[in-house]
Automatic annotation (TrEMBL):
Classification via PANTHER family: BSL7085 PROTEIN (PTHR39341), DUF1858 DOMAIN-CONTAINING PROTEIN (PTHR39341:SF1)
Region feature (Disordered): 74-126
Top-level division of the source organism's lineage: Bacteria
Protein's UniProt name: Hydrid cluster protein-associated redox disulfide domain protein
InterPro entries recorded: CHP03980_redox-disulphide (IPR023883), DUF1858 (IPR015077), ScdA-like_N_sf (IPR038062)
Compositional bias segments (type: Basic and acidic residues): 106-126
Residues covered by the DUF1858 domain: 3-56
Length: 126
């Protein structure tokens, strides 16, 4: 049975308590919460502001369910970032990667475009 957003958190933990570290790596700390008995994975992810798609991908890979052509971090097979042996990144690592890729994209622009972007920011107050 593949993990889905509507599954109850406690049911997933009852399938295999080994998923607890996966929940924690993703920032979902509801294992001891009295609500987890009735809370869906989607509801729990919303409360703890967890990336639901990434969590579901990690859980399905843990259980050995087919996750399509993606690695543990959601990188598509064939992409330069794909790593079949990768462990899931923490939320902080994913945030850092986003910040770094944004900075790299900004630095790849010609100087004239960066000045234009800054003038737009000044106009919008950003």
């Amino acid at each position: 049975m593949k993990i889905t957003a509507d599954m109850i958190v406690s049911d997933i933990m009852n399938m295999d308590p080994g998923v607890i570290p996966i929940f924690m790596e993703h920032g979902l700390y509801c294992m001891g919460c009295f609500m987890s008995g009735d809370e869906s994975l989607e509801e729990a992810a919303q409360v703890d502001m967890v990336d639901l798609d990434h969590l579901i991908l990690s859980l399905n890979q843990y259980f050995g369910f087919d996750t399509g052509d993606y690695d543990m971090n959601g990188n598509e097979a064939g992409s330069s970032d794909y790593d079949a042996t990768a462990k899931p990144m923490t939320e902080a690592e994913r945030d850092e990667l986003k910040v770094n890729s944004t900075a790299e994209n900004d630095n790849s622009k010609p100087e004239s475009d960066r000045k234009t972007d800054k003038s737009k920011d000044a106009l919008t107050g950003l």
